[in-house]
């Protein structure tokens, strides 16, 4: 190695050590100088990458919008996002990096239930807010709530309950005519448990009376799960799906090929846009519940979102995922604006809890308090029609079966 090579190498090494020492010297979870730094561990590659990219895009659109207006108390908002590929094993080092090394004031917008299961103990132990995660699992919704785990969205139990109620009330289905296809992990289990609880309210005697197929996370191995459901007696007239978009699309394609005549209903995490793209003309009539309004609606915050997204990423199309990230970030920014004094991990939690009843232009009531750590409980149904994602009135199911 020549002198220039050695000098460059040792120079970079010295800089790396100096940067590490600088990071180590920063106070934990305290805004520094003119910046407030947030972290995110999400799927930026792999089968769920589109979900993670959309969530990051929405949060960044809100942060950049706030920064154009002077930030929060004159401080710039910055997001540092790390890729976990929707795998818990990668979430753990990402959370350590964000909290211990980069010393973020909060972790926001993480994507997924299995990854949240890995992240929450780390956030709680480090007393770091774990806010606005893209998951509706019950593990984030304890009673009483974990102090550092605060949610925007409705739960998977609320999404699947809305589906069950509509299928029984409007489509006239019997409880044993509703099947489940779920991911074999904490995410799939959360949706299934919520759906079974709703069916029990409608008279289901045992979960064993309901057909239930499963598949492994980050695979397209749906055939065995489909066989379980196809063989059920009576034949299912509706299948509630709690999975990722690629395997759910594969399941629907195969189910229709073999003649399973049923409604297919997906929870929001599936990602309506990637599901629609994957299905093409085979997606007609597929239902997806959402935890935000339609991105084409005329609600004040949705209009703001479209403008902010166009300014942040002009080539990006609006999606429910990026709208959710934007809404969650707007609530966080509202809380930041109410902090009188240093922005710290503790002051962020206190301020979010102090919002009580509040309005960000969604057209539905929102509430956060020391005993309520889920801001929204509203579910908006949508349906794939003509290659587009359209709002759905549950009453329309009366003519669908």
Write a brief caption for the model:
This protein is of the alpha/beta class. It has helices at 3-25, 49-68, 88-101, 113-125, 156-169, 186-201, 223-230, 245-257, 272-279, 300-312, 320-337, 345-353; strands at residues 35-42, 76-83, 106-108, 130-131, 149-150, 178-183, 212-215, 238-242, 263-266, 287-290, 356-358, 366-368, 380-385, 388-391. Helix 2 packs parallel to helix 11 (320-337).
What does this structure look like?
The structure is a single chain. The chain is of the alpha/beta class. The chain has two domains: 203 residues, Rossmann fold; 154 residues, Response regulator (Rossmann fold, 3-Layer(aba) Sandwich). Helices cover 42% and strands 15% of the residues. The chain has twelve helices and 14 strands. The N and C termini lie far apart (74 Å). The N terminus is likely disordered.
Q: What does the radius of gyration come to? A: 22 Å
CATH class annotation of the largest domain? Alpha Beta
CATH architecture of the largest domain: 3-Layer(aba) Sandwich
Strand order of the largest sheet: 7-6-8-9-10-13-14
> How confident is the prediction overall: mean pLDDT?
91
Strand segment count: 14
Poorly predicted sequence stretches spanning 5 or more consecutive residues? 1-26
Assign the CATH superfamily of the largest domain. Response regulator
Q: Structural class of the helices, strands and pairings?
A: alpha/beta
């Amino acid at each position: 190695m020549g002198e220039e090579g050695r000098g460059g190498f040792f120079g970079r090494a010295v800089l790396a050590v100096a940067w590490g020492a600088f990071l180590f010297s920063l106070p934990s979870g305290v805004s520094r100088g003119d910046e407030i730094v947030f972290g995110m561990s999400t799927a930026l590659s792999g089968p769920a990458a589109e979900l993670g990219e959309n969530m990051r895009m929405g949060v960044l659109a809100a942060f950049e919008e706030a920064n154009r207006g002077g930030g929060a108390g004159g401080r710039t908002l910055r997001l540092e996002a790390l890729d976990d590929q929707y795998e818990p094993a990668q979430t753990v080092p990402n959370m350590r990096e964000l909290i211990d090394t980069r010393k973020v004031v909060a972790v926001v917008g993480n994507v997924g239930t299995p990854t949240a299961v890995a992240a929450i103990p780390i956030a709680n132990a480090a007393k770091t807010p774990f806010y606005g995660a893209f998951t509706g699992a019950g593990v984030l919704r304890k009673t009483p709530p974990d102090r550092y785990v605060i949610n925007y969205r409705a739960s998977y139990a609320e999404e699947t309950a809305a589906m069950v109620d509509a299928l029984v009330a409007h489509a006239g289905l019997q409880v044993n005519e509703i099947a489940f296809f779920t991911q074999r992990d904490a995410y799939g289990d959360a949706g299934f448990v919520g759906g079974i609880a709703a069916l029990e309210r409608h008279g289901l005697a045992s979960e064993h009376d309901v057909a239930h197929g499963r598949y492994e996370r980050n695979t397209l191995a749906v055939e065995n799960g489909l066989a379980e459901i196809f063989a059920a007696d009576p034949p299912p007239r509706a299948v509630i799906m709690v999975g990722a978009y690629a395997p759910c699309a594969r399941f629907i394609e195969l189910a229709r090929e073999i003649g399973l005549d049923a409604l297919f209903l997906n929870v929001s995490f599936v990602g309506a846009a990637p599901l629609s793209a994957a299905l093409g003309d085979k997606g007609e009539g597929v239902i997806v519940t959402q935890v935000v309004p339609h991105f084409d609606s005329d609600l004040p915050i949705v209009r703001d979102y479209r403008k902010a997204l166009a300014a942040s990423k002009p080539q990006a199309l609006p999606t429910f995922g990026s709208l959710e990230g934007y809404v969650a970030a707007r609530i966080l920014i509202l809380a930041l604006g109410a902090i009188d004094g240093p922005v710290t991990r503790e002051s962020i939690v206190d301020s979010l809890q102090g919002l009580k009843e509040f309005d960000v232009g969604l057209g539905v009531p929102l509430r956060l308090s020391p005993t309520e750590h889920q801001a929204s409980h509203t579910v908006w149904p949508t349906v794939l029609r003509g290659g587009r994602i359209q709002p759905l009135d549950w009453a329309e199911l009366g003519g669908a079966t």
